[in-house]
Amino acid sequence: MEHPIHIEVQRIFLGVVVALICLYLVRHYAFTLNRLYGRQRFPYLDVGAADWPEVTVVVPAHDEEIVLPRILDALLMVDYPRDRLRVLVVDDRSIDRTSELLDLYARRHPDLVEAFHRRSGPAGKAAALADAMGRVHTDIVLVFDADYMPGRGLVKQLVSPFFDPEVGAVMGRVVPVNTGHNLLTRLLDLERAGGYQVDQQARMNLDLVPQYGGTVGGIRKPALEAVGGWNVGSLAEDTDATFRLLLGGWKTAYQNRSECYEEVPETWPERMKQVVRWARGHNQALIRYLGPLLRSRRVGWRVKVDGVMLLGVYLLSPLLVLAWAAALSLWHLGINEPGLLIILAVASYAVLGNFATFFEVAAATHLDRTRQRVRLLPFLSMGFLVTALAVTHGAFVQLAAASPHRKGFWHRTARRSRG
Amino acid sequence: MSVTAAGIVFLMMVVGLFTLPFLPALRELVHRRDAQALRVHADGRVSSTYFAERFRQVLTERLAGPLHEVREGGQTLIGRIEDDEPFVVLPAARPVLRPEDDGSVDALVLAVGDLEIPDGTALLREVYAGGEIRGGEDVLARATLAEGHLRLGQRAISLRWMHGGGDVEIGADARLYGRVSADGRLHLATGTAFERLHAPVVDFGEGPDHPALDTQPQRVRVQPPELHRGQETSGGRTRVDGDLGIEDDRHFVGDLVVTGHLRLGANVRIDGSVKARSAHIGPGAEIGGALVASGELHVGEGARIHGPVLAEGLVALRTGCRVGSDGRLTTVRAERVEIQPGVRVHGTVWTVRDGGEVRA
Questions:
Q1: Among A48, A177, A376, whose Cβ lies nearest the Cβ of B29?
Q2: pTM for the predicted model, two decimal places
Q3: Do A46 and B350 touch (CB under 8 A)?
Q4: Tens digits of per-residue pLDDT, A32-50?
């Protein structure tokens, strides 16, 4: 029986979303099974002795008086040849005591700490990094957000992949330090574990697209310059850099055992703001790089599939919400074909609500050799639901307010100096 | 049963099944048995001498008294430490260890001065000497620390770790599990299998440092476009899609990435780092930076690699190869390492799965 066009469109849309969700389901399982049973790759892990290259650690800081001394103290302690290490702190128009504290450290440690007080130019981390690169005279640049706590061995671990001339960026593992604060922080701890311990490492194992996350990581400056430098207009300069490097023939290496503590949001509104920011930046990257990635003759099909799925990960939530609406609409219009509806419900449940993602997180806790925190898994449904709604909201707002000339600004999570 | 009752039972079952997983979740939320931050490896991977350093710490904290007593009194001391572990402390005047009839010693062995270990001795616990350790043939040691030189004869077996404050010399056909390190020169004879080695100078087997190669080859400089038709240079490196061969006596400046197999001819010199899927490095070739492969690396006679050598497969180093240099230590890391006699590495040799072997 022929249906009117609007019904056909909804049916096709529903079918496409179901197929997409099934693809992501396969991806989640493939990554998890790879981490549990596949060959694990840590090719740069054991470089203990080497002629270490000169490196600059850039710390972008905007009103970071609470946490700045902590990260600078940690960087003063790192195990790296002192004459080859420089810490460049970008004080980007701070109005608290960040400038004063930074100057104090720069005076006390002139051989190591350099202060860059940025008072003009576009706002935002990407713009601050872009300006900072003019003061970087080393090929290797590590970036730490000010609320991170690098351990003694972290700089060497993050530098060692750069001995490989194919590596353009390196990413370490982020571990929440304020895990036990409340239910949200505990759920974020589980999500981070799944994302790094399973997702990122599986991509590394399978030689796909580990993502440079903008902090606890590093960039090869000549590589970044060769692909156009930091994209000042990007809301997610890290994802943007990941894909430009990929298209330029550079690899991003993930170092699962290069771990660093961070503070995760402790309130739901903060968390939602963070997710919306990530989603908007990611969707920007999707629009910019989907076409070039698909057209690239340098990138192999496996990497293309992973790259496209990585780019599209934040599009899934709004698509799912629209698909639910389409399914309900079809049902009310009398198109009672439960097949698609059931498939959508089951697949959605499997991807967002239960098995695939949950399996991934559970596998991560197993790999981390933790025992009890996996019991919180059922609460993750709540976290995922909030994330899905926040991402959907962010996507629609982004669509409504799309402007190529929007001003940059600093989005940051509230600091508390835990740990 | 009425339809209403059945409906209520069904509803209760659904609610029950839904809430069931939340019971352990709520319990964990309330009791917070696993709410602390994950422990991170803040110091990175442990150093090659990590176990030796920890053992030194144990000696200082728990065995300083007995060592001092024997140093002052000059008599052998037998005792037990707090956790009931037996120990024997030998004075400097009597450095020869006396094992049981079956050749075993089931005690911590501490020598104030030098220590001599008879042939066939099986040391089931840690061994320490304030001076040198001289071991015979077929010695089995669990963990060994000598503040001076450490020498073991043929067919020695080290189960966990071994460190010498001076030189370490291991006889032929030894089996070295875990870590072996030296503050001086570490020398492994032919036939020895190993896992992780570290020293400023690690020599393998007996053989010439440098085979008879042209030490001053006349090299012809090649520019990136001459390498390969499909090459591309950006960001300081030249990338070649597919296989690449570079003829003998060529000189290339810059980093080189080859997505296929790389074959460097004899005496080729690369002033930069090299990455390939797999590579054969010709005899007498020289690489100024790192040599990296996602597969196997075969390095020809007398080749010199100044930076780290990293492979996810086999690394084979032929006679006369040198990796690193004096005062510029580096790392060889691979799934398996095969080394011919006459190879010298400055720094670390770290195998991650199948071990390594010195084979002629």
A1: A376
A2: 0.90
A3: yes
A4: 999 999 999 999 988 989 9
